[in-house]
Amino acid sequence: MTWFKRTEKGIQTATEQKKDTPKGLWYKSPTGKIVEADELAKNYYVSPEDDYHVRIGSKEYFEILFDNNEFKELNEKIVSKDPLKFVDTKEYVNRLKDAKAKTGLNDAVRTAVGKSKGKDLVISCMDFAFIGGSMGSVVGEKIARGIKYALDHKMPFLLISKSGGARMQEAALSLMQMAKTSARLAQLAEAQLPYISLCTDPTTGGITASYAMLGDINIAEPGALIGFAGPRVIKEATGKELPEGFQTSEFLLEHGFLDHIVHRRELKDKINLYIDLIQNLPLRN
Asked: Per-residue pLDDT tens for 213-222?
């Protein structure tokens, strides 16, 4: 079937020989910029053309922040139960099972300890891929234990927030985590150990109302969505038109809710700088 080769156009590849571009090889940002996946990873998962910060998880943040990507994960085997026997569109136990299979994670946060620029650091990092980064009892417990580890070993603590809010399937048990983690952070403050809070896209709900805004220094990535309730709820509650972009990190910085906005390529240097300043240590190169 020579007509199918379209030789007059210089196209001679038979249809059965053609292959689709493998998924994940290219990334398209919300502004329409296309970048190779390898190039994106080398650029700290930031689109080089429009500087858009792609959502990443604990795996990528640990690679960026820990020296040589070397760390020890803490409490990794803790998993959620279903004490309320909760059912919405599916049973909670099945939702958890699906999330674990899809992400390879046990829950929506990972905590690890390692070296960052040569000094010890404990990091708790939330993963939005696991049920929208929702905060349940395991998330609160792992963060609280991470803070306790920092207390016991006199280390700084970094918390990277990325969440849709409290996990409704755990109801009041989820809301209790706000008080538990905040109490642990108070102990960290009493011990005069640094706590840096990094808000990434998105940081919302009970997370914003608790540990995400309790840092000695509160920082965020460019363009991150940060807020408590959604724009529709706020508009209905206040009866007022809302400013454009009022829940972006840039707007919050302008109005005093954040201390700094830090580009991802500068995260490691800046976080260690803030820790040194809080501890009144000589600045590191």
From this structure: 999 999 999 9
